[in-house]
Specification:
Elements (H helix, E strand, L loop, with lengths): L13 H12 L2 H13 L3 H29 L5 H6 L7 H32 L8 H12 L2 H20 L2 H10 L1 H17 L5 H8 L8 H14 L6 H7 L7 H29 L10 H11 L4 H34 L4 H20 L9 E3 L2 E2 H29 L1 H8 L8 H28 L2
Antiparallel strand pairs: 1-2
Helix pairs in contact: 1-8, 1-13, 1-15, 2-11, 2-13, 3-11, 3-12, 3-13, 3-17, 3-19, 5-7, 5-15, 5-16, 5-17, 6-14, 7-15, 7-16, 9-13, 9-15, 10-13, 11-17, 11-19, 12-15, 13-14, 14-15, 15-16, 17-19, 18-19
Bound molecules: tryptophan.
Length: 453
């Protein structure tokens, strides 16, 4: 959808839009983060809260961001300047820019770990169920400053190269073919994990809630994950919305993406938790969980060696697809606000991100003594501030923007494709959820999670 006025590149087909937006949602959030947060927060109770947060906060905000992006058709700061001139709503975009930098810093580090695991699994180093070997291998990787940096820089350079080819060619080509294969492989891994003796404990952990384990910090974590999963509150989805075709059904697309994304997360949970319990590993290992447990499942699988390589390759590709949507934020702001060419904006961003990202990569070694927030190292602090403070705040402001400034009529016009979709009554409900329930929920959860003791 090239736009005659300003030559913005766009997606060439409606399936391309869907695939790329799904590509932004599905990534390390499903395969790495979802399982470890479920594990840290006590299992099914967290899952339940997460699903509620996705339905009442994530989904309405996703619809809002896509429609704001498509209507204003510019970068995430520009959209608010365009829809609400001479006001301060553009601060939402500025918040997003800050969170994006924090997220890319640790996200690219973790993708670096995944690449390192591709190399390890090719060499067959991980084919074992020996807990000590698996734990040692992971610790050795993240505490080695030069290899952490090398992998992370490699990832960011690769993203720079992909983006230099432009939106439709670069992003679409990478993400289109990937999802079905990843999905199938996850099914196979889950089946293997489920076939281990004692696997049912893991299924219970994932699906039978223990309400006693739900507290305020669990609820805030679930809210943060809902934002992180659907790429909300930073501008990624606003930009992808600006590439949406005028005839695309936004609420339907957002709903489908949410469901598909949830399915991938649940499959990742089913790949990991049955094995964790069957093998006597602990579910609350935090960010190490995926890396220290998944190799033990492949060890049990026919053709496990080859399939483990494929698994880490697909995970890396899904993660790169998601990272593209993050890096798109600073690039589009520089390109459209500062009038830099796309290529310069891309490489200025990449160089800056390599420098800023190194802070996360070094926070388990050289910079390990530095703590920023509540005794957390740099990596964890960036994660905390982005997921639990900045993204929810931006989400709160976005819902208020739609409710108070953009207004119901404009919201319905945008999401019904100027009335041609005949979905006004559904949109009426979504509008009221977005304008009233979403901001109240975010405000309450943030207040009890961060402020009140
Ligand atoms: N949603 C992606 C994942 O789960 C990560 C991601 C991409 C993201 N773009 C984002 C997270 C924007 C927050 C904001 O892996």
């Amino acid at each position: 959808m090239a736009n005659a006025n300003n030559q913005r590149d766009g997606f060439s087909s409606s399936f391309g839009v869907f695939a790329a937006t799904l590509g932004s949602a599905v990534g390390l959030g499903n395969i790495w983060r979802f399982p470890y947060e479920v594990g840290n927060s006590g299992g099914a109770g967290f899952l339940l809260v997460y699903i509620l947060a996705t339905l009442f906060v994530g989904l309405p905000l996703m619809i809002a961001e896509i429609s704001i992006g498509r209507t204003a058709n510019t970068d995430p700061i520009g959209v608010y300047k365009k829809l609400a001139p001479r006001s301060l709503w553009w601060i939402i975009g500025a918040f997003g820019l800050v969170s994006v930098l924090l997220i890319i810093s640790f996200y690219s580090d973790v993708i670096g770990w995944v690449f390192a695991y591709i190399a390890k699994s090719v060499r067959g180093h991980l084919l074992t169920q020996d807990k000590a070997v698996l734990e040692g291998s992971f610790t050795q990787l993240i505490t080695n400053p030069s290899s952490s940096l090398a992998w992370q820089w490699g990832v960011l350079l690769l993203v720079g190269i992909i983006l230099s080819f432009g939106v439709s060619k670069g992003i679409e080509a990478v993400t289109k073919k990937l999802m079905p294969v990843l999905f199938l492989l996850l099914c196979v891994v889950a089946a293997t994990s489920l076939s281990m003796p004692g696997a049912m404990e893991g299924v219970k952990f994932l699906f039978v809630p223990d309400m006693a384990k739900i507290d305020r910090s669990v609820i805030l974590t679930a809210l943060g994950l809902a934002f992180f999963k659907l790429s909300l509150g930073v501008g990624s989805i606003t930009i992808y919305g600006s590439y949406f075709r005028r005839d695309q059904n936004i609420p339907k697309t957002a709903f489908t993406i949410m469901l598909a994304d949830l399915a991938v997360s649940l499959l990742a949970g089913l790949a990991i938790f049955p094995a964790v319990f069957a093998l006597g590993f602990s579910p609350d290992k935090g960010p190490a969980l995926l890396f220290q447990t998944i190799p033990a499942v492949f060890f049990k699988m026919p053709m496990g060696h080859a399939l483990m390589v494929v698994f880490f390759v697909l995970t890396a590709m899904a993660a790169i697809g998601a990272l593209l949507s993050l890096v798109e934020v600073p690039i589009s702001v520089m390109h459209e606000r500062l009038n830099l060419s796309r290529i310069s904006a891309t490489w200025v961003s990449i160089v800056f991100l390599i420098l800023f990202g190194s802070l996360s990569a070094l926070s388990f070694s050289t910079l390990g003594h530095i703590t920023l927030i509540q005794g957390k190292n740099i990596f964890d602090s960036f994660d905390f501030v982005s997921s639990k403070v900045l993204m929810p705040t931006a989400g709160l402001l976005t819902s208020l923007f739609v409710g108070l400034r953009w207004g119901k009529a404009a919201f319905i016009r945008a999401n019904s494709n100027e009335g041609s979709l005949n979905n006004a009554s559904l949109l009426n409900i979504i509008f009221w959820v977005l304008a009233v329930i979403t901001p109240i929920l975010i405000a309450i959860i943030m207040y009890f999670g961060l402020v009140s003791k």
